[in-house]
Structure to design on (1482 residues):
């Protein structure tokens, strides 16, 4: 069997690939060289103020990792491998000064046979090159447009300029018998109405000989299929699984996982190696919505909306979720635990889809393992975002290998729903299109290597929509006004900003800058000002428009968080009310990789829910009462109107309900209407009556609308709107003044 | 050297693949079995009335071709091959009853080594299976949705139901030396601003040995590059061509053609084999137009218009042309001469692009040779149209091989501009989309095998437009009203119908049905009625709306042909005036495969121009004066308005012009305006003043607008509109009557 030998690395930097660092510090592996250096030299926390700028120089040096091979017993024809899932980004590997490998690309694993080069005491060196940059461009994402390095760390409107690199995945030596399993993969096609599966098993061995045993274990660990074959170097066989227990996304059924075990035995029956692969059985197609031809109805006729509605195991579903970004700037520090907390919160929020946006990394294996387990589908983009990735021969060569490596790894996960070329590539600010060679290459590789998995070139495609990312638009309309007039097949990005909690702000903003927030300084470094259009993401004029001046930091934070929560309720629910034309609602963004001052995220850094998280969780309940209210701010004399809906995402019908709409006003509660709603069919919704009330003369207040399902409080919903009446009280006192005269 | 031995075939039919036909008739090869049988049995002309229906039974039989191998001297290690560019559609080949090959697919060549099976007198049999049909569907194109058989012959709105099959390409025996060239292909990439080329030569030999000499001849036949290599079985080498004379589309420059000659010599220096490939050096990209983001300007943002603007050798051009359909129902009868006349007419009409629509065949080699020579770019679709080609394993397997064969053959032609998956696949009536496996396969094959050639999934894509196909819309607007309000990136299909000339009608319509045309009978069989929506393609109510009742066939034909010509002028020129948003204008359709009674074509069957051809030719002059007039029918008192333009498609500036607009009225000519136009930049246009006149009281007449470039009559244009005044004369006579009282 394979023996694993950990390596202990030191890291230093040098001005050239062949120069010797003046100093080495202990390296955390997995980790990032930049953070190792900062920790060893007592750098202040990069998350505070603009300390991240202290790391700038680290982009342009060579990081040199060194480790000595410990005393290792290697007997007979055993072989020694240096193995890791990836090294970020361009690097070479040397043994006692001899260069054994040069590679560009962080997603292609390294599995380097060192047997001929090493002995106990051999010095292994990994030289990591400077961050790839197109020369002559400003220090922003455009520098990343000629590499497969994720562009986000070059600076984004919610991510500082801070580019990590190095040994970000586990690195170890493995002593393997001469015969070992290079790879074993089981793939399937569901047949017979998703009841059975045709399996294909591909096994490659380091050399022929011995016997291979392949076993499929069900969720209880019991063998349901088994096959033994003579050990050929490359082995492929097919089997039929006569009965399949399907994997379902969160809330549509169980996340049943099987395990395929591939074992290699020598002629005497001794086990030499074993590989395990978890398998979930699922089919997922992207379909056009039923009105996809609505834009092609008049001459000259155009095309139908692009397909984006997910059909899972033959059932069309509404996809609820968010845009996932990796949870740490220093990706080497991400662990299964980092992921687990945040993915569990997504499950609890009734989410079933993450869009893993192309600006960031393809996450580590534990991310996909957790999504497999928790039923969160993954829309996986390749590392292209908001740039024009020109198809030069060099770029295409790297992209070809990197994308093959990504596909080969991730296609094994049942949670993988969709491949996508990258983010917003078919927009002016990127300038790519269907003819871009990089996208033609990705489409071809996905078809060749994973044909049954949908591939889309980018988001948005025709019919889909991105944005906006503010509560109140520059034209004065709020999201409650805008959303009902939209008609998109999928809302794959939209946002409402809110501030981080005061204690987080105190941990990143110097005390003297804390209140009131101002542009420049730490708030701007943490994306409260000038991050994007206008005063994003704090949007102080919006807060002031609704609430007037804020007197304390706590008050300001609370108000922005209130608006964020209310805005997300409007968008998530309206997208659902537009089913089946709309079938996807993914806010920008779910989490964040460092503590922001203000951002569109639902989870603060480290996975702490903002108030918006809880509001979204309510709006994503699979069965619920929902109210469409067409504006947020109300005035005296206006007809407050709430259009009532019952939403049902599930495969079960929602029984008949009595629904009551109640508006809480300063002078008491008013029941606006009672709706005797019949049964709501599966994956469907129904529209009820509109609840209407003319608003009287009150002082400024919050209007609370409660839509209650009788006897089913878990279906009921509560909404909050603002009522503003600057004239209130004035007339009365003027009247009183007049009487007094 | 290779010896070619013609074969003489007979053909008969049988009810099963292994049944023996009762009767054989002489077979024309290349040709079609159905026509051979009809000719031998004195069938009436399939083009007359509904005689094509006599061929229906022929769809479902097996056509059995037989030929005896003539006395053939085969010496030493020579080999005998049965070779053809394709057999339509599903077939098997037998030698003396032994089955040697079974194949489905008409575009994959057959090159069958018969050496072991044949001697003089051996009987070769080719059994062609019945036309592929999905069982249980009506007799229309939907039956073709599971095969790579072109669907048009299953019936279209301008093509009768008549499905040819058989040996439609040349078939011969070849006696080859043991060493011969299997294939030799030279490919290139233009470099250094289109001034130089990197060449790659791939040669495969039947067996290693001897020497290979590769020579590049320039257009005068002089060698400009030469390379000799030892004869390996598979040989690949690269060369640099330091100076390139580019190939240009019609009217943008010369159609310079080089020739690559690959010769194989035995060790003694005797030439064993030779292959020639003509090469034109051209680069063509599809680009987005400058306002491609105009639909993505508001939130939620969508995507940019798809790229469709052709950039040839670094210059953006306006593409003018038409939709080509194959010029004979019986494709086996098409020769170079059939193609040549029609392609020459396209060149004379200033066309530079044919869209070869996916309903039909991929044309024979001579079609592409002629397009190479005459500078007509080819937009080549794969044989998919207006159906949902479901990606079953069987269909994908055939499509995979057929598309590879098509790509491998056609990519060698410089005229090939664009690959396209097929026609109108992203519309409701087809139901395919980006996720359709057939299109993902085609995209992948085109990228793998011809990466520098643009590939698009279908037409229309986002931004492009198809239709309408009538002069006057159901809502009462005419094409002069509709077109200026459109804003499409490419008009890749649009039509105006007109009748065939009276002598053609007399050759296809029985005398008693000739006039007036009525639905049912021969007119309907020839698509004058009920072909598509409404009374297409005759549209009698449109003719009557403009002209009243027609008294003779000649008058009716003239009127429909007049409307067709006027309609095409409106569309072709408006598309050009919308440059650079619009960059393509391709009417439906150019030619026809049998004589129609009425159709949207410019060339009648056999290549005879209709009046519309000459009108379109005028509207496609690369430099010209053009007038936008926003309706066709005018009345008393209306302000006749002509917006003047100078159009310049060429790379040279159009010098300053004095332009005069003159309207010819019943009471004489009126000069409406004089425009002193400055120079018009290359590939550009300029808008001038509007020429305006209030229309007086005349009898019904034709208004003739002449826009004249002083001293440059070749730039001047003449337009005709209708003036209708039903009250004219009535008042006068009423007044006279009153006076008389």
């Amino acid at each position: 069997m394979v023996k694993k030998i950990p390596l202990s690395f030191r890291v230093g930097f040098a001005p050239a690939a062949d120069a010797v660092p003046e100093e080495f510090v202990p390296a955390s592996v997995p980790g990032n060289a930049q953070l190792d250096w900062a920790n060893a030299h007592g750098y202040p926390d990069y998350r505070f103020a603009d300390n991240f700028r202290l790391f700038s120089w680290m982009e342009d040096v060579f990081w040199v990792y060194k480790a000595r091979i410990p005393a290792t017993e290697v007997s007979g024809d055993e072989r020694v491998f240096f193995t890791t899932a990836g090294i970020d980004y361009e690097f070479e590997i040397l043994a006692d000064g001899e260069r054994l490998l040069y590679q560009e690309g962080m997603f292609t694993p390294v599995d380097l046979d060192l047997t001929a080069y090493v002995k106990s005491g051999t010095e292994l060196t990994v030289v990591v090159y400077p961050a790839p940059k197109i020369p002559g461009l400003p220090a922003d994402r455009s520098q990343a447009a000629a590499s497969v390095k994720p562009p986000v760390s070059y600076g984004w409107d919610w991510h500082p300029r801070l580019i990590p690199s190095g040994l970000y995945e586990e690195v170890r030596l493995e002593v393997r018998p001469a015969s070992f399993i290079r790879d074993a993969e089981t793939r399937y096609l569901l047949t017979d109405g998703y009841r059975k599966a045709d399996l294909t098993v591909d096994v490659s061995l380091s050399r022929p000989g011995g016997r291979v045993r392949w076993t499929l274990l069900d969720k209880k660990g019991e063998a349901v299929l088994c096959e033994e074959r003579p050990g050929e170097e490359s082995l492929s066989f097919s089997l039929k699984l006569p009965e399949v227990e399907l994997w379902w996304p969160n809330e549509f059924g169980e996340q049943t996982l099987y395990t395929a075990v591939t074992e290699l035995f020598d002629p005497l029956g001794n086990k030499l190696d074993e590989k395990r692969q978890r398998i979930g059985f699922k089919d997922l197609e992207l379909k056009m919505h039923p009105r996809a031809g609505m834009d092609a109805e008049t001459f000259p006729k155009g095309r139908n909306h692009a397909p984006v509605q997910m059909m899972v195991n033959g059932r069309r579903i509404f996809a609820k979720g968010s845009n996932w970004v990796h949870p740490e700037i220093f990706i080497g520090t991400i662990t299964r635990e980092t992921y687990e907390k945040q993915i569990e919160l997504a499950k609890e929020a009734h989410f079933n889809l993450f869009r893993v946006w192309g600006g960031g990394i393809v996450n580590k294996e534990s991310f996909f393992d957790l999504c497999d387990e928790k039923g969160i589908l993954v829309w996986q983009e390749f590392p292209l975002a908001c740039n024009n990735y020109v198809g030069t021969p060099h770029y295409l060569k790297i992209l070809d290998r990197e994308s093959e490596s990504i596909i080969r790894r991730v296609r094994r996960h049942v949670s993988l729903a969709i491949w996508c070329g990258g983010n917003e590539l078919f927009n002016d600010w990127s300038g790519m299109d269907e003819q871009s060679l990089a996208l033609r290459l990705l489409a071809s590789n996905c078809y060749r290597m994973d044909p049954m998995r949908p591939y889309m070139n980018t988001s948005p495609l025709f019919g889909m929509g991105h944005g906006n990312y503010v509560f109140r638009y520059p034209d004065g309309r709020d999201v409650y006004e805008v959303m009902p007039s939209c008609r998109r097949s999928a809302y794959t990005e939209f946002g409402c900003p809110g501030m981080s909690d005061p204690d987080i702000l105190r941990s990143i903003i110097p005390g003297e800058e804390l209140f009131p927030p101002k542009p420049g300084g730490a708030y701007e470094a943490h994306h409260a000002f000038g991050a994007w259009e206008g005063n994003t993401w704090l949007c102080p004029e919006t807060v002031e428009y609704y609430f007037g001046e804020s007197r304390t930091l706590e008050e300001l934070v609370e108000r922005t968080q209130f608006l964020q929560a209310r805005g997300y309720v409007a968008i998530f629910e309206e997208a659902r009310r537009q089913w089946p034309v709309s079938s996807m609602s993914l806010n920008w963004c779910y989490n964040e990789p460092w503590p922001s001052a203000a951002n569109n995220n639902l989870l603060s850094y480290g996975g702490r829910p903002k108030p918006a998280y809880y509001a979204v969780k309510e709006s994503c309940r699979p069965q619920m009462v929902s109210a469409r209210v067409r504006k947020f701010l109300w005035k005296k004399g206006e007809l407050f109107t709430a259009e009532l809906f019952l939403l049902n995402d599930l495969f079960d019908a929602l029984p008949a309900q009595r629904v009551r709409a109640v508006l809480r006003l300063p002078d008491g509660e008013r029941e606006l209407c009672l709706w005797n709603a019949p049964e709501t069919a599966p994956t469907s919704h129904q529209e009820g009556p509109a609840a209407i009330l003319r608003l009287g003369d009150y002082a400024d207040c919050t209007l609370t609308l409660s839509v209650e399902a009788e006897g089913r409080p878990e279906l009921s919903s509560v909404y909050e709107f603002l009522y503003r009446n600057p004239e209130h009280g004035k007339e009365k006192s003027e009247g009183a003044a007049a009487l007094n005269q």
Summary: The domain at 623-723 of chain B is CATH 2.60.40.10 (Immunoglobulin-like). The longest helix of chain B spans residues 553-577. The first strand of chain B starts at residue 3 and ends at 6. Chain B has four domains: 3-176, 181-279, 309-619, 623-723.
